[in-house]
Amino acid sequence: MLDVQDLAAGYQGxxxxxxxxxxxxxxxxxxxxxxxxxxxxxxxxxxCGLSQLSAGVxxxxxxxxxxxxxxxxxxxxxGFVPAERHLFPRMTVQDNxxxxxxxxxxxxxxSSVVFDLFPRLSERRNQHAGTLSGGEQQMLAVGRAxxxxxxxxxxxxxxxxxxxxxxxxxxEALAVLRRQGLTLLVAEQQVPLAMAFTDRGYVLENGVISxxxxxxxxxxxxxxxxxxxxxx
Amino acid sequence: MTATAIVLDxxxxxxxxxxxxxxxxxxxGLGGVLNLAYGQMAVISAMVTxxxxxxxxxxxAAVAIGLLAGGLLGLIFDLTILRPIYRRQGEARVLxxxxxxxxxxxxxDGFLTWRYPxxxxxxxxxxxxxxxxxxxxxxxxxxxxxVILVIFGLLLAFLRATSLGRAVRSVIEDEEGAxxxxxxxxxxxxxxxVLSGVLAAIVAMTQxxxxxxxxxxxxxxxxxxxxxTVVGGLxxxxxxxxxxxxxGVISTVATSQIGTFLSLIILLVAAAxxxxxxxxxxxxxxx
Lengths: 232, 287
Hints:
The complex is a heterodimer.
Chain A: E1 2-11, E2 14-24, E3 29-33, H1 40-47, E4 55-60, E5 63-64, H2 70-76, E6 78-81, H3 93-100, H4 108-117, H5 119-123, H6 134-146, E7 152-156, H7 164-179, E8 183-188, H8 191-197, E9 200-205, E10 208-214, H9 215-220, H10 222-228
Parallel strand pairs in A: 3-8, 3-9, 6-7, 7-8
Antiparallel strand pairs in A: 1-2, 1-4, 4-5, 9-10
Chain B: H1 3-31, H2 38-54, H3 59-79, H4 82-86, H5 90-115, E1 120-121, E2 130-132, E3 135-137, H6 139-161, H7 163-173, H8 175-180, H9 185-208, E4 213-214, H10 218-232, H11 237-257, H12 260-277
Antiparallel strand pairs in B: 1-4, 2-3
């Protein structure tokens, strides 16, 4: 479904990530793990059309989409939830969700899927997004992305700033979406959570992919265990 | 003049201020572009209407042509001088927009005063004054105020209740967020520039119902729009409306108590005080 070849990206001519190649197949849940500053956000922003990439090819559903802006990718079915969420703070939860379906009208079926998944959003639908708690904002960011009915949902550190219990709940919600057939790609620092949830993973270190494998293999790898799972 | 009459005049003036600022503030909120040729857009629209009337076009049709001209000017702006501006980000964008639009304003002003130094648009609204709260108000005031209220209502309905309007607001709120839901910010900016051109034209038309809009009126219109925008808060249409009303009343009170020559200075002082107390304006979007 998503195929990235030799991608390089960075800021002002300095590449932060190089030679990144990975793929996500339909129905899979894939993680990209790495510490803070490894380049996960740079990679995702370039891949999802929010910033420029300096080299490489991105294929989505068999079409080349390299360098296509985010507003076009979302219409192809690639939804992105960035770590900073980028909600519309002075608009209501309902308006944020309706915009998620732009340019179509929000489809009632998708709305009810979102509200079933996050009942809190339904309770707060007339509240401004800026007044929500961190956990609720994360729910809204995911909910908004779901309103466009994506086939691939890309999430950058969905647990940023969330208490452990909320982080768990966030992954439970993602697991529900997965069972409903959504393909998922997650970048995560909280490696144990992501590991339990995904099929495969890549380890991003200093801007390059240093390891890849099934999540089980990675969980057993001594380097991963010492660097990301706190096991020595 | 009685106190009621002064306040009523202030409200009529304030409505015009508010609509003027709405056009400017939306463009700034969306694109980070301050259009200093905004008043010239209003003046050109007025001149197009004037020349249409002179050419024998019926008045209402001539007004419609003027509004179209305003919209077209907005579109031309977007397609030409704003192109290099869009390529800059942040502060560089604001500065370049100030310089380039100011340049356009000077050229337009110079051309108009050279070619048509004595022209002015005056739309006569027939009939005697209308009594409001015991004050006989000129019919032009009342018609202008009603037109502006209707336009404000339509503008707010567009921004709040339509999907395109919400898309416009989403860009003001968070440009990256807007892109993530599939909104193309440059398309929204183009639509809003056309809209701001039409709003500038409407302000010129309503003003001409009371006194002539002369070819040299551009800079005064721009300065007033800037003051109201700053007080109302950049990017907020309701802020513009509110600030317009407040400053309109301040202006007529100042004019009647002190004199016309000081009213612009008093408005500037009001703006300066607002910035000191609330740096983002009455209802501005915080940076």
